[in-house]
Each structure stands twice: as structure tokens, then as C-alpha cells.
Amino acid sequence: MRIAMIGTGYVGLVSAACFSEFGHEVICVDKDLGKIDALKSGMIPIFEPGLDEVVSANVRAGRLSFTTDLSKAVPTADAVFIAVGTPSRRGDGHADLSFVFAAAKEIAQAMDGYTVVVTKSTVPVGTGREVEKIIRAQRSNAECDVVSNPEFLREGSAVEDFRRPDRVVVGCETERAREVLTEIYRPLYLNETPILFTSRESSELIKYAANAFLAKKITFINEMANICEKVGADVQDVARGMGLDGRIGGKFLHAGPGFGGSCFPKDTLALLKTSQEVGAPTRIVESVVAVNDQRKIDMAEKIEAAFGGVSGKTIAVLGLTFKPNTDDMRDAPSLVIIPYLQSKGARVRGYDPEGEREARNLLNIEICKDAYSALDGADGFVILTEWNEFRALDLDRVKKLLKAPLLVDLRNIYRAATMSAAGFVYVSVGRATQKPGK
Ligand code: NAD
Questions:
Q1: Do the Cβ atoms of 437 and 423 come closer than 8 Å?
Q2: Which three-class secondary structure state does DSSP give residue 362?
Q3: Fewest CB atoms within 10 A around its CB: which of 112, 175, 315, 346?
Q4: pLDDT tens across 61-86, in order?
Q5: Ligand 1 center to residue 12 CA distance, Å?
Q6: Which residues are catalytic?
Q7: With a 6 A CB cut-off, is 4 part of the ligand 1 pocket?
Q8: How many CA atoms lie within 13 A of 136 on its CB side?
Q9: Whether the CB of 327 sits within 6 Å of ligand 1
């Protein structure tokens, strides 16, 4: 199959590289000349584990190429995937579909012969219909089908997720389009990945329903963590005891500073908008959004309390991205928590293994070259993102560098007993505060 991928970001580039690995011929298109130039010269513009090898192997094999010129990629394609961004529209929380619609218009002008146009971007119910209208308005005789194929990969494990998804969801209305999508995903089908064919509307809603449900799980365990702190229970034991129940499952039951990232915040908001518009409000998702917004403030106040006020203090923050193994800072909790601490007079020093470039654009803090230089002379430190390299810090060295041995661990990556034995005041989430044991 010949595929054009419009939008070469976290989803577009991973999908394109993996499709080419399946044996298809894929051309990636992006408006961002810098991105395309970087890719052409063998550089990967984002941090995503394992992606560089898949890209370079398939470029070498002649199956994967890059261009800024959509009109060159589309005419020969059997399927054109739209993987452009759908951020929150400023002010009202609606998904901003302007990039999707602009891409649809350009595709319509360039397509030649039967083409399946596939929305991989996360888009509200009814968008497929709109995309089809746009195409038909440009080219009334266009021979095409518009299909929904939402993406479920996670940044940080995107390549593995794409190669071995739990399921592939395809919303399509014709047998002809179904055959093209079946052919594209055949290698996964042979691996026994369930491929679920639904109506376009169901497919579009499945993506939002899944993300809102996962966001709800995170929010639920965060509220349980608050209860644990009041009653002397341990949220990790509670989460484990819940998660071992097969009906619940242990994933997404990690208490922390609230969800962030490029998907959950904007997708829960967009689902709320859809639900209000169609007159089927969802109070659960409303609460999830409100509780999660408050969660970030609550965590900033938790830090403030642990430090006994932060005015004039230097706080080292380890981890700035919204989760480990990505350089993505979109809606990261750090973007709320750090400015809050600064507004209370704290001086913040940060370190992140991969997020430095984005953090420099988004935060007005001193960014250090490693964890230990961030800790040097600080009044205590905070773990905000659970990068592996923070799990095994040299605690003696840390203690010597800090003015006071205080850790606020918002990801619960240390054992309370270990920290106490190492002489730290250890504040974590949903567990009792530990005083130094010696
Ligand atoms: P991104 O911002 O990383 O990439 C989008 C790319 O599209 C950018 O490089 C931009 O330059 C390009 N673009 C915009 N308009 C274009 C046009 N007309 N022609 C060519 N290129 C164009 O976004 P992303 O994180 O890859 O997300 C893309 C979509 O996938 C969103 O709808 C998102 O909700 C969804 N999604 C994202 C993830 C994730 O983890 N990032 C997971 C699942 C689904």
C-alpha cells in the first residue's frame, strides 16, 4: 500500500515509521520545514525511545520519505492519514479542528483516483462527516471514503504500542475502505491484534471515552490518596489491592500530581463540550476535569507546607515533562506547580533528562545539566516526574549537597523506610510523612 501521512509529530512520525516497517511505502508530510529538513538529514525532531532505529532502517530500505509538499505525496497514495494536532481551542475547550480541516482541503485538491482519507488525529464525533463535506465541496466528483482510525499509542512507548496495540479501531462506512484498512493493518491482524470495525461516530467516540476513563482512574486514585493521608492508610497498598481485581486492573492507579500531557487534558475538555452540545452532560468527566485542575494547586500547596513556606528558599525540581521517556511538556503539572512556587517567592532550579529544550521555552527557571547540580545548595527537592535516573540517586551525596534533607516525592518512587533510614524528611503522596530515622 502507498500511504501519505499528513502531520509528522509524535503520532504521525511513529505511525509512518511503523507502517513502513510493515512493508508499506510511506511519505510523511509536514508544514514545518525545520522538522522535514531534520528528518531528511537523519535527525529525529522528538525524543521517543526506539524511533530513530525504525526511521533510519526504513529510510535506508527506501520505504519512508519526507516532504513539505502535500501535492506530491497525495496523488499516488491509496490512503492519506491526517495526523495533525487538535489542541484545545483557546477560551472554550473545544477541539481546534482548523489544522484538520485545512489538511482536508489540501488533500481534496491533490487527490487522484480512489483514495481513503483516514483521520488519525483525535477528533470529536461528527468530524469525519465534516471532513467528507469539505472534500466534496472542493471536488464534487472525488472518489474517496473518509474513515476514522483513532490512535492509542502512549508517548514514551509509542513504537512498541504501535507494533503491539491492544486493538485497532476503524470507523468506516464502505466495504472498499474496509478492505484498504484491513490491508494496511494486515501484519497486526496476523499477530492476532483485534481490529474493531465500527461506524465512524462510534470510532470517534471510542477514543474520547477511553481517554476520559483513564483520566478518571488517575483522578480516582488521587482522591483515594487524600483519604489515605487522613486515615493513615498507604495508597500504594490500596491501589495494589484494587488493581489485583481483574475487573479493575492495576494500570493508571498511580497517585501523583494530576494528569497532564498532550491528550488527557484537552480530550476530557473536548468530550465535555460534545456532551453539553448534544444535551447529554457527563458529570463524571466534569468532576474529573475540576478535580485534576485543583490537584495541581493542591500539590503546590503540599510542597509549600513541606518546606514550611517557600519564600526566599531554593527548591530543586527533578523532572519537568508530563511523564518520563518523552520531551513533551504540553500541560505538564510542572507548568502549574513551578509558577505557583515562584509566585510565593521560591527560587526554582530544575533538571529534566530530555525536556530541557521545551522547559527553557515554557518556564522561567534555572535549568541544570544534571540532578546533582540542581540539588547543590537547595533547601530541599521535589520529584515531579518519575524518570528512572531519579530512582537510584546517591542519597549520601544528595544529603551533603542539600541545605536540609527534605524530599517531596510526588511520584512515590522511594520507599519511606529507605528515606527515613537515610536521614531524610520524606513527604510523598497518599502515605504518611516520614521523619529521619537517625
Ligand atoms: P504534534 O503537534 O506533535 O504534530 C502535529 C504535526 O502536524 C506538526 O508537526 C505540525 O507541523 C503538523 N501539521 C499541522 N497542520 C499541517 C498541515 N496542514 N499539513 C502538514 N502538516 C501539518 O501532534 P501529536 O502529538 O502527534 O498529535 C496529533 C494528533 O494525534 C492529535 O489529534 C492528538 O490528540 C492525537 N494523539 C496524540 C497522541 C500523543 O501521545 N501525542 C496519542 C494519541 C493520539
A1: yes
A2: helix
A3: 175
A4: 999 999 999 999 999 999 999 999 99
A5: 6
A6: 263
A7: no
A8: 8
A9: no
